[in-house]
Specification:
This protein is α+β, with helices and mostly antiparallel strands and 169 residues long. It contains four helices and seven strands, in the order E-H-H-E-E-E-E-E-H-E-H. A hairpin with a 3-residue loop joins strand 2 and strand 3. Helix 1 packs antiparallel against helix 2.
Length: 169
Amino acid sequence: MSDARFVALISRRKVIGNVLFMLAAAGSMMVLMIWQWPVRAVDWAAMLLATGCMLMFLYGAFRIGGILSYRGELLSVDAEGIQMPRCYQGVLPWSSIARAAVVKGRLQLWLAKDAVIPPGRGLDHILRTNRALRRDGDRADLGVDTWLADRRPSELIEAVRAQAPQLFD
């Protein structure tokens, strides 16, 4: 076990990049819809598509706004275990994790049968659903990613290997 603590915060640059991509996609779709409307009579399919694009845009804007307003840690790894405050309260202890693997650059965790699952925000529901869906035991219980974090996935994997090397095959 290492004494170093891995902490990942939300990367404002990555979030803003995703917002700009979303705006460009929604804007180009709306321009195409507006450009075609004078040519045809009212096309209900086009109106439905435009309405769907606007609703997806609004949902995304609210989600991104919630992410940008979050000021705490996104993910931390230390001697106690893994903590993801946006997903659950408390720490997922190393004793609750049976095995870990890296699949396509993403950390996958399999929990022990008697795992202590921290309460909060539906993690227990997600874990139950994942366990019900996997048939051969090859699917992980929990995937940990640094998609919107200010740290790289390789740094996360190195931190977990330093704290709990026994989890990796």
